[in-house]
Amino acid sequence: MEISAVRWRPMTTRVLSGIQPSGDLHLGNYLGAIRNWARIQHTADAFHPVVDLHAVTVPQAPGELGKATLRMSQMLMAGGLDPEVCTIFVQSHVREHTECAWLLECTVSFGELSRMTQFKDKSNQQEFISAGLFTYPALQAADILLYDADEVPVGDDQRQHIELTRDIADRFNSRYGPTFKPPEAVVPAAGARVMDLQHPTHKMSKSLDSPRGTVDLLDDPADIVRKIKAAVTDSESEVRYDIKAKPGVSNLLSILGAATGRTPEEAAEGYSMYGPLKADTADAVVELLRPIQARFAELEADPAETSRLLKIGADKARAIAAVTLERARTNIGLLTP
Ligand code: TRP
Q1: Residue 154: CB within 6 Å of ligand 1?
Q2: Spatial separation of the C-alpha atoms in residues 164 and 301, rounded to whole Å
Q3: 86: phi then psi, degrees, rounded to nearest 5
């Protein structure tokens, strides 16, 4: 393998995508996003902040947040984000994010923020709705704009925030002169669509409150097998990829295909019963996750090493963010200290 050929490819496109340190990653996160990020890092200049400041928009237990941030960083690294290839860092370690967010809060309107569907959804679930939950998209815009990111690989639910980021960049630029680069949202076509094993018409998600429907990246092999064998199918017995008529079976085929580098239709070939399909899907997922779990165990055993890697990432990130923030400060007309 010619590693040097990979490393020396000119890296033109900068991509950035952040993830909150909220809970462990599951198979849907991995197959739908993280695995794609791990691929992109070899052809683009990739930045991945673990966005701990976004997490504090809702109450967090102080003793837990730091641990969750470290653990998420380790899961990303175990999932294939190589700190020597991409820039993986903790958002709060690069203080430029919060300063830039303030300038952007003053560039976005109350009306625009009020129209964000994620705010409406999340605020409905909170008793205490923090001002930070409302202004969250300005912090997200800072995450992206500080790095002049060209592309933001995100799920559909984040499109609106990326559109708003573009509007904020355009408005800032027209008020104060060229400062920020408006980014593009890219919803990866390659990402597998992984549904809940118990509710196969819903995306796999922790919030569904069906622990048996979610395969965690760090689940024991025995649990993975148990959950996949108990997956909801339907009363027919034909194995065929048909999302509408057979959501449960189609989900297993998507997972099996994604885990073995095939399309769901290709994965369906040769199966006429659910039992063998489930057994093979379970095996494929166990094999897919085995090296990730092994790497995670190594990282978990040596938190100082993860901290060292995160510091390298934060230093790289800060060097870029500081330049952009300085440009913004100058263009908006803040007095130079
Ligand atoms: N808001 C994103 C989410 O809820 C997380 C996020 C924060 C993000 N900053 C970002 C995503 C920057 C992409 C780019 O999933």
Answers
A1: yes
A2: 41
A3: -115, 180
DSSP lists the bridge partners of residue 50 as: 19, 90
Ligand 1 and 140: CB distance under 6 A: yes
pTM for the model stands at 0.93
What's the gap in Å between 295 CA and the centre of ligand 1?
A: 25
Q: Is residue 18 within 6 Å of ligand 1 at its C-beta?
A: yes
Tens of pLDDT, residue by residue, the chain (337 residues)? 444 444 444 558 999 999 999 889 999 999 999 999 999 999 999 999 999 999 999 999 889 999 999 999 999 999 999 999 999 999 999 999 999 999 999 999 999 999 999 999 999 999 999 999 999 999 999 999 999 999 999 988 999 999 999 999 999 999 999 999 999 999 876 667 899 999 999 999 887 777 899 999 999 999 999 999 999 999 998 999 999 999 999 999 999 999 999 999 999 999 999 999 999 999 999 999 999 999 999 999 999 999 999 999 999 999 999 999 999 999 999 999 9
End-to-end distance of the chain based on CA atoms, in angstroms?
A: 51
Q: Which residues are catalytic?
A: 122, 203, 206
Q: Rounded CA gap, 156 and 209, in Å? A: 22
